[in-house]
Amino acid sequence: MTMASVLDEILIEDQKERYADLKLYKKNHDVLKGIFLREIPFPVLKRIAVILHGTMGEDEWMAFLSELGIKDHVFITWIKLKAKYSEEPPIYLALKGPLQHIKSFGEVIDILMAKERYDVLYDIKPFIEGLLEKSMDSDLKHLPVSGAIQPTAPPHHDTASQKAEVLFANSNDCSLERNKLQQSELIDPVYGKLIVKSIDDSNKMVKRKLISVLLLHSEVDYAVAKNLASLLSNEGIVVRMLSDLDYLILMNSVDTIHALLCAVDFVVPIVSESFLREIHPEGSMHMVV
Fold first, then answer.
1. Which top-rank group of organisms is this from (predicted)?
2. Which of 15, 39, 12, 26 is CA-nearest to residue 99?
3. How confident is the model at residue 193 (pLDDT cuts 50, 70, 90)?
4. Which tops the pLDDT comparison, 156 or 114?
5. Which of 47, 180, 182, 184 is most buried when burial is the number of CB atoms within 10 A of its CB?
């Protein structure tokens, strides 16, 4: 067999795999369109972003986000700044942030198919197959992810910010209506986590209050804050990092900060030189004891 014949066979097999992938996605298009991004585990979203980011320039990933509906310069600025100090791919920040409640997983798949990103579709295929085997009411967070990058911190059992991000659900252009940004709509206090206990083969729902903490930190101290959040979460404490909602702060800092402070039991600042520079006017550092 000649080298040309071998290459032809490889190309044919590759085309067959791509056709099978497309057939899988097209056949289940309606199901995927019914699943919001908030239901997809972060490692899956990050895997998609990492692959795309490795082959895209700034203009390309900005165009990708534009197709997903992010065109507001405020959100683009937020994504660029956060990507710089968190070292996370910009597309990942968008998928796990502003787009969580307004875009479906199927819409992301549609764009990947239109751009012929078969590398991404092939990589997440094991997750898709597992997802389709589960009922829509199953816990999607436990599905396997082939080759996915795992987060450094454990999952946060956090409800404090869910209402804040739901505000984006009523806006197709990712903009926020300031007159609707009120404390009652923004964040509910972190109360009443439901914990399932199995007693005599029967489930009982036990309600209790969890301790919740808001971490204040500078951009430079993001990694330190993330490590602290991991340690606190391991102790059963609900942790919210201020940087997780900085896109809301850009839109309405007064109401957002007020609601955050009302929603947690304790505020823990990570005090450093960079933190003090951010909270004190220039030239007033000598006043800090």
1. Eukaryota
2. 39
3. very low
4. 114
5. 47
Neighbour count for residue 115 (Cβ, 10 Å): 14
Q: pLDDT: is 177 or 110 the higher one?
A: 110
* Helical H segments across the chain, by residue range: 3-27, 29-33, 42-53, 58-67, 73-86, 90-96, 105-114, 118-123, 125-133, 162-166, 183-186, 222-234, 246-251, 253-263, 273-279
CA pair distance 106, 95, nearest whole angstrom: 13
Contact 98, 168 (CB under 8 A): yes
Domains of the chain: which residue ranges? Answer: 16-139, 212-279
- DSSP sequence for 220-277: TTHHHHHHHHHHHHHTT-EEEEGGGGHHHHHH-HHHHHHHHHHH-SEEEE---HHHHH
Write down how long the chain is.
Answer: 289
User: Reduced to 3 states, what is the DSSP secondary structure of residue 97?
Assistant: coil
Give the Cβ contact number of residue 24 at 10 Å.
15
Q: Residue 229 in contact with residue 264, Cβ under 8 Å?
A: no
SS3 146: coil
pTM exceeds 0.85 for this model: no
Give the span between the Cα atoms of 233 and 238, in whole angstroms: 6
* pLDDT exceeds cutoff 60 at 80: yes
